[in-house]
Design a protein that fits this description.
This protein has 280 residues and is α+β, with helices and mostly antiparallel strands. It is built from nine helices and eleven strands. Strands 3-2-1-4-8 form a five-stranded mixed sheet. The chain has a three-stranded antiparallel sheet with strand order 5-6-7, with no helix packed on it. Helix 5 crosses helix 6. The longest helix is centred in the last third of the chain and has 22 residues. The protein is globular.
Length: 280
């Protein structure tokens, strides 16, 4: 295959670039991410047209910030973009007249690093991407691992804070809410508004939550540590296909009532007691 176009769709911008078989970027084009699904398709078309000017392009690859199906055609759900079962491949192909493949953006980044970047020469690679959200890609044995539902490496939606901040995925306490670009900007604005001091002081204040979280990780109270392992780190079971929230800004809080927490603690205690009895 000759030249192709890679399109990265983020929460704030859409970037397109013409790439040759050696991974060299020959031209680029950027546009802002529109707020609507149809607007995003128009923006992708514009970015592809702008980047491909003067080049003979054969295909388009799209890295989408969301959960992509195993056919690499439909975005099932996106926490930071208004996509719900969005047939992105079909829509873009109709607009640009070229073959299109859709992949999760962090998976695409991981494969790019494996082929042409920091992962060259390695069989196993883990990539973590930081932007509007936080994503990841996993390569094991020279193969990209998507998982059963295509969301194997969604590190940003691992729950790291019990009953924490509400995330766009519908869960609470996701890593993305504390370590993404959007989260860091939020921290900086909060600190700057609360303590209008010198730039150095603002930086120290803005990074305080991050530094505190690192300290709490190594010195977590025993009671909290005993409770947290019993709480699932993901929002869906391993069996049936997950049901995605109806809105990326859904205000529906996950089921985390005190009664549910009590039941979870009871289950954890009974499991621990049973294992001790068996050991005896």
């Amino acid at each position: 295959m000759g030249l192709t176009i890679g399109v990265d769709i983020g929460g704030t911008k859409i970037a397109a670039g013409v790439v040759d078989e050696e991974g060299r970027i020959l031209s680029t084009f950027k546009v802002s991410t529109p707020p609507t699904a149809e607007g995003i398709v128009d923006a992708i078309s514009s970015a592809v047209s702008g980047a491909s000017e003067g080049h003979d392009v054969e295909a388009v690859g799209i890295g989408a910030a969301g959960y992509v199906d195993d056919k690499r055609a439909t975005v099932l759900f996106a926490p930071n973009i208004n996509w719900r079962h969005e047939p992105l491949k079909d829509k873009v192909e109709q607009r640009v007249g070229l073959p299109v493949v859709v992949e999760n953006d962090a998976n695409a980044a991981a494969w790019g690093e494996y082929r042409f970047g920091a992962g060259q020469g390695h069989d196993d690679v883990i990539c973590i991407t930081l932007g509007t959200g936080l994503g990841g890609g996993i390569i094991i044995g020279n193969k990209l691992r998507r998982g059963r539902f295509g969301v194997a490496a969604e590190f940003g939606h691992i729950r790291v804070v019990p009953d924490g901040l509400l995330c766009g995925c519908g869960s609470q306490g996701c890593w993305e809410q504390y370590a993404s670009g959007r989260a860091l900007v939020r921290y900086a604005k909060q600190r700057a508004n609360a303590t209008p001091r010198t730039p150095r002081s603002c930086w120290v204040s803005a990074t305080a939550p991050w530094r505190a979280s690192r300290a709490s990780t190594s010195a977590r109270p025993p009671g909290r540590a005993a409770r947290w392992p019993s709480t699932p780190s993901v929002s869906w079971p391993a069996g049936p296909e997950p049901v995605w929230p109806t809105s990326p800004r859904s205000s529906t809080r996950p089921r985390s009532s005190s009664a549910a927490a009590s039941r979870t603690r009871a289950n954890w205690s009974s499991t621990r007691s049973a294992s001790r009895s068996g050991a005896g």
